[in-house]
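Internal QA ticket QA-208
Title: Verify multi-chain structure generation after dependency bump
Assignee: T.L.

Test input:
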Amino acid sequence: MEVGVYLLHRLEELGVRSFFGVPGDFNLGFLDLIDDYTGIDWVGNCNELNAAYAADGYARIKTGSVGAVLTTYGVGELSAINGIAGAYAEIVPVVHVAGFPSLKEQEDKPLLHHTLGNGRYNVYAQAAELFAYSHTILNDPQTAAAEIDRVLSDCILQSRPVYIALPTDVAYIKISHERLSVPLPRLPAQNHSLGEAVVIEEILKLVEQAQGDVVVLVDVGAVRYNAVEEVKAFVETAGFAVYASPMGKSVISEAYERYGGLYTGATTRPEIKAKIEGAKLLISIGALKSDLNTGNFTTRLDVARTVELHHASSKIKFSEYPGIGMKYLLPKLTSALTSASLKSLTLSIPVPKWTHPLPQESDEIISQAWLWARIGQFLQPKDVVIAETGTSAFGVLDIPFPDGAVFISQILWGSIGWTVGSTLGAAMAAREKRLGRTILFIGDGSIQLTVQELSTMLREGLKPIVFVLNNSGYTIERAIRGEHRKYNDVVNWGWIHLMKALGDVDGTRTRSYAVNTKVEIDALLSDGAFSSADVMQVVEIGMKMLDAPYALKVGTAVGSQW
Amino acid sequence: MEVGVYLLHRLEELGVRSFFGVPGDFNLGFLDLIDDYTGIDWVGNCNELNAAYAADGYARIKTGSVGAVLTTYGVGELSAINGIAGAYAEIVPVVHVAGFPSLKEQEDKPLLHHTLGNGRYNVYAQAAELFAYSHTILNDPQTAAAEIDRVLSDCILQSRPVYIALPTDVAYIKISHERLSVPLPRLPAQNHSLGEAVVIEEILKLVEQAQGDVVVLVDVGAVRYNAVEEVKAFVETAGFAVYASPMGKSVISEAYERYGGLYTGATTRPEIKAKIEGAKLLISIGALKSDLNTGNFTTRLDVARTVELHHASSKIKFSEYPGIGMKYLLPKLTSALTSASLKSLTLSIPVPKWTHPLPQESDEIISQAWLWARIGQFLQPKDVVIAETGTSAFGVLDIPFPDGAVFISQILWGSIGWTVGSTLGAAMAAREKRLGRTILFIGDGSIQLTVQELSTMLREGLKPIVFVLNNSGYTIERAIRGEHRKYNDVVNWGWIHLMKALGDVDGTRTRSYAVNTKVEIDALLSDGAFSSADVMQVVEIGMKMLDAPYALKVGTAVGSQW
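Actual output:
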């Protein structure tokens, strides 16, 4: 079996059905292998950054699987590197395969195109290492299978990107497929049993003392390290109140009756804030305490009342327990928390229903405050909602989601334009998983970075709804600085013509709309054909330049950086 | 004077009038300084890769100056890195300024957005180092001016990219402007005088022995190291026959009577090939011997008859002379070669006029062979012609250029999509330098990578002619592998609608055309309004999927990589 085919088998085993990327002469040979491989489809992208974003979006929706992106040597892989770094930051398992010169070329070092002209053939791999959990250059066919297994195991177990440089000739060298008979590990190493017992005992003691006033705060680690089922069983069994961080939004269904909404520090609605910060015990799961995930560092959780469960460690008040991870810990805690008396105590603590009613506004302007509430009515169970860094991400955080609706955004990395590529990947994954509609919210500034990938969605027969919030430039940045500076202006595009340009030449395969008043958007959102998402749709929403969602307006959500 | 303003003064001194980039919250403060600075205009781009490409294109046209690009921390700078690496490979002086966390943030290391979440604040600078000749993080206001001077001097003297990380607060710290009274060095270090004398003596001896049969082969180093005037004086004084490599195309006017065309090894037209390879003495200036600059390593120059002059070294037959660079060497050689008898000898060796007549074809299909010949008739003196890696770059190489027309392409780096960004930069530079029209040739696959930057050209009032060769995908790659594989297909866009989508909503500021026959394109190219380039124009040229220019067809131009 060719090394390239071995790699494809392993990717398929991990759940990969779509392989994103851009062809280049250092990966064309491997592309033939992909094209001939039945279990995985090639999804050619318009450029490599978008391809990396797509693999990232795909991996986020296919929890427990990975995303895969193929680029060519130098020019391709470097274009993707921001997307890979973003996956690293946001704990997303992406396998980056880059075409690499043949063994003979590596030895002779001819002055090839796509090199720097100085013989430093490994320089891109050096750059890749900085943003990969593991990496390998598959120069030795003898160890290629083991190396593939090593980095892919790291990818799925550590939920971080890995890098595989695949020399053009090695892709075709035949190796044994014997290793394939042993599946890759999918579960982390077991916890140290004595340490784990201590942690469980301590937590049970704290739960008992809390007399039911226990708040569980769910964050991104829970979903990225594939512990959502364990978290659900834990909170449902004990009846604890559940809240989420922005990056943890939708990990636990927002329709769950004991779910109380988002905790974003100082910008949290006061009644929610008091419930969380005043709880007798707070169990934080998978926390990532970045600025925009903590209301710009305004979360105030008393360490003396807090338990933190992480992927590979736990913390009880001031004590850290390395090596005691949540995946195995949570089920044991759950088993220990089945007492009816505990549950009646926890259920006696009410969790107010988190709602976001439509504000009464007398004018026809589509305000941020009104829009997000109205969008909340539009969402359906199992929708996949993607929100761009900017007013969109802050706005979507205000919406309570229906059951099973999924939220993805780049709260930590915050690379504008990311959502267009990731919408492609997310929509592919949503189709594979038979989820609902894929809905993107993005501003007129951000979409310009990566707009071409809408074309790939069209080709793949995907039917996302793309809401373009046209507020005349980078409103998120105006909120920070340069409110009227020209550097925050962008060209006003003809959004209504966009899909014609990007491939729907005769206008039969997509629908585009422009709405500028509450009446117009209300009519559109109420329209059954629109709502059914039977074709790809683009909606330009005309909005005021300086209007912003609640969290941005109160001003502590984003820190000024200078 | 603020550190940021000091930097702007130095950039202006180096000839920068346009600063490309994308705003982000780590560079907004510096952007205010740019906005308020009268000598340099901010040109906001749609994304950072395009911005880097624009700075590269700008620097190529403004020989002796530099390009400048501003990005934000992490997400922005990493998106630009492929463009910077390309500038490194192709010897283009680009200053990359990246926003950086404040001094206090660097000390406290909060978990900021745009970080990897692991406190490695310097990791992007580590990546940048790999592709920069020099780099600095301006953390110390005491040395900031000296550091700026150091890296900018390297940029212009070494003609390679440099990287400046500018902390948000340091941009505003006041420093002395005293250093500005001493201009930055613009000339390389002097040659060692005794060594130089030896080299001159040896070369003069070889010239004498050659009895006029001397061929000068001009390559990219001549223009990038700012020695074009010295090369011109040298060849004109002595009357030597002049040829160019692909990367050296147009460095010497292709209308010059002693210019004989391009040397591309085995794919060179036989009559030219014989003249060059058979010359008694070959003087190679600024050579860069990459695969696609040498007909895939098929150039056959007898070392025993060759002199190589480089930026910082010379080579005579088998002897190398480090530290003896062409900038000072050439004028001294020129002074020594003024004898009338030498000139009459050299002029007795005829240089056949390089022409590319229109082939007679009986059908209406726009073939590659016919197209480039017809384009040759369309070009005017001082046009700036940009050709994308692919059939465009190979095709344009077949066209003899009129006087003063300039060719730019990415023959070594070969990052597809590069030309769109670089056309923006080149057109800005061409307007500053009052050159002619800016004309881009690109394929329907390549333009999809970076298409949004056409929007920026529109906003800036530039009037490029953009020829989109619609040959249904990546034809250059089909020539290598996967002729009918689906990974070489791309979506067929509605090119005629493109500029409406990208900002010319009412269609009054641009013109778009689609031509599919020889008659149609001939009529368009003959039309005075079109030819006058009074507005931005986009022309879709319908072509056959597998048709390719001569060099690609003969098959040695591109090596198979696997």
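Spot checks passed. The first strand of chain A starts at residue 18 and ends at 21.
Status: verified.
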